[in-house]
Specification:
By secondary structure, the protein is mainly α. The protein folds into two domains: 126 residues, no CATH class; 128 residues. Helices cover 67% and strands 0% of the residues.
Length: 257
């Protein structure tokens, strides 16, 4: 079992997140919480590269794309948490270790599942070069990463202007989607799956679980639902927000209705 890369990456993912849980619980800090998410992807991807003695161009490109995404996410979230000081998501569980650890264990499992297509590509012996499908997948990834990065930067800049306190962003790409950052996140992981798919056979197609999982989580669990609920409660009597909500696409950037 110790020679199984899927088991090893799962073990490493849990190890990383348990380490960060211990640190966050001991010092009652959120400064490294979001950093651990992107870092888990980067470390696991580097591990998979290291254990592959015959890395091929497609494998190297996909790995580098994930590492670049991870480093960008780490940088953005770390700068953001230094600015906002704490993450309100953890206010009710930060001082309850048994509740708090559930977040970290779920995150460890989530990272492993989302990375399944890339893990399969990076641990499979391949002899073929780039295919049209792989190229399309890489383009999809780049589009998703560009949208996510632009949305994050636009919102961060907007929120750090004093005159925008207690306002919501509806400019830039946020004019066409209420959650463009999540759209970009889903898109880039579907791009990774498409890029990896030409080498899949038989059970390996089950790694589609990765992009399906992140899409489901962001659409129905910890992404969009709590934000929509919070904004609706905060701006329930704000006619301008209600108009923005009714006219603007929930996820996919589209012209306003």
């Amino acid at each position: 079992m110790l020679n199984n890369p899927y088991f090893l990456t799962l073990l490493i993912s849990f190890g990383i997140n348990i380490f960060f849980f211990i640190f966050a619980a001991a010092f009652k800090t959120d400064k490294l919480t979001d950093l651990s998410y992107g870092l888990s992807f980067v470390i696991l991807t580097l591990f998979l590269l290291i254990i592959n003695p015959n890395i091929q161009p497609l494998q190297l490109i996909v790995a580098l794309l994930i590492i670049v995404w991870g480093i960008r996410l780490i940088s953005y979230l770390f700068i953001r948490i230094l600015k906002i000081k704490k993450d309100t998501r953890f206010d009710k569980i930060r001082n309850k270790p048994l509740e708090f650890v559930k977040f970290w264990l779920f995150q460890a499992l989530a990272v492993w599942i989302i990375l399944l297509p890339a893990s399969t590509l990076l641990t499979t012996e391949i002899k073929t070069g780039f295919s049209l499908v792989s190229s399309i997948g890489i383009i999809i990834f780049i589009i998703g990463l560009t949208i996510e990065a632009a949305a994050d930067w636009q919102k961060f800049t907007f929120k750090n202007q004093p005159e925008n306190k207690n306002k919501w962003i509806q400019s830039g790409i946020w004019k066409y989607s209420r959650h463009p950052n999540y759209f970009g996140e889903m898109t880039l992981w579907w791009g990774i799956f498409v890029a990896c798919s030409p080498i899949f056979s038989h059970w390996q197609w089950l790694t589609i679980t990765g992009p399906i999982f992140i899409t489901f989580i962001l659409l129905f669990v910890s992404g969009i639902p709590p934000l929509e609920k919070r904004y609706q409660k905060k701006y329930t009597n704000n006619q301008e927000y209600q108009e923005y909500k009714n006219r603007t696409s929930l996820l996919v950037p589209l012209p306003r209705r």
